Amino acid sequence: GASIQDDLVQQTIEQFEQQQMQT
């Protein structure tokens, strides 16, 4: 449901932030 979608979005955002920090 929505909660699962929110978790997936959070994981994607965290990965995106990590990539930016590495750059």
Sequence stretches where pLDDT stays below 50 over 5 or more residues: none
Structural class: mainly alpha
Q: What is the ordering of alpha helices and beta strands?
A: H
> What is the beta-strand fraction?
under 5%
Shape category: rod-shaped
Mean pLDDT: 87
Strands, total number? 0
Largest sheet, strands/sense/barrel: none
Helix content: over 70%
Radius of gyration: 10 Å
Count of DSSP-assigned helices:
1
In whole angstroms, how far apart are the ends?
34 Å
Structure description:
It is a single chain. The protein has 23 residues and is mostly helical. Helix content is 91%, strand content 0%. The protein contains one helix and no strands. The longest helix has 21 residues, at 2-22. The N and C termini lie far apart (34 Å).
How are the elements arranged and paired?
Blueprint: H1 2-22
Give a short summary of the structure.
With 23 residues, this protein is mainly α. It has one helix spanning 2-22.
Any descriptors?
23 residues; 1 helix; rod-shaped; mainly alpha
